[in-house]
Amino acid sequence: MAKFIYRMENILSLQIKLENEAKIQLTLANNILRIEQEKLRAIYDDIEEYEEKIRNFKNQVLNIKELKRCNDAIAIKKMEAEEKKKDIEAAKKNVDKAMKRLREAMVERKTQETLKEKAFEEFKREVNEEEKKEVDQIVSYQYNNGKEEGEL
Known about the structure:
Elements: H1 9-59, H2 64-151
Helix pairs in contact: 1-2
């Protein structure tokens, strides 16, 4: 029996590799986004902590130096938060780009798989036609040989 060989198997395997790489890139981009979001949460936690200290100063003896230090720290943390928001936006864009590349790679892989399936179906059809021809030839040969033997 004939063996099916897909001529563009190397392209299909390349598409699969590209898809796997795109999946890895998407995972890395998502991890970076998650880390940046955690950093932003930590900054907000620090701001909350400094604000809590300021609220506690109102109940105690006023310490001007510590109050100023907390207010300065809050201002710095708010600036850090704004920078971190920019980093998060950049990370989100990277995730979107990675997702787009993954979708494109998946489409290409599926296209190659569809082409392979069609080629396999064509191969099966050709094999069936060849088998039918062989059967017809055998039947014709037996029929013709049977006639010749009957005539003798």
